[in-house]
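Homework help board

Subject: predicted structure for assignment chain

Our instructor gave us this sequence and asked us to write out the predicted structure in token form, then describe one feature. I got the tokens but I'm not sure how to describe them. Can anyone check?
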Amino acid sequence: MTGKDRPGRQFSMKPKSDLTDSELLCLMLSGDEDAFSLLYRRRQGGIYRFALQMSGSQQVAEDVTQDVFIFLIKDGHVFDATKGSLSSFLFGVARNYVLRRFRGDQSTVPFADDEDDQPFDPMCDEPGPLDDLTRAETIENVRRAVLSLPERYREVVVLCELQELSYVETAEILGCAIGTVRSRLHRARALLLAKLKPVPESVEQSSAGVETVRCFA
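My token output:
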């Protein structure tokens, strides 16, 4: 193989920090360790946060992140830029590893039974509620509420609201239509609002009274 035919040579004149993810992957697959290091630093944080927000476990998040980049080293050639960005590809790989963890590890937060998707009403496509919710509720309450969502709703909240990905990117990761993403996100927002809605004081007092009676029964 001549020098001009060597993979990644066309990128050699550009600073690596200016290269796209796909260009870095090309260099990485040709044996450029610096390209891998830069790609890892660029995408590791998002993958880790996704796995953590989906599982509620730091150990799972660390393991999934490691598995994703090991997969990229061994099988990065399967990435097809015509089907989406490398970032979406990595999130998709991470999602698969998270799902495997849920099937084999009961110590992580399980996925609740899915409900059927509700038809999407475009008139109800309001801005995400999480900004307001995190101001009104503690971060811990929001985290627990997200983890309690069924799989299909938890995924779209993590990707669209917490990772701030577009509907298009989320659809690429989940392998579904954009309309499905919008429908699930609308339903997820409603579920979160219901879970984080403050309990009326009268209800709290009533519940406290019941508990008191039970304690002395």
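Reply (TA_rk): Your tokens look well-formed. For the description, you could write something like this. DSSP finds ten helices and no strands in the chain. That's the kind of observation they're looking for.
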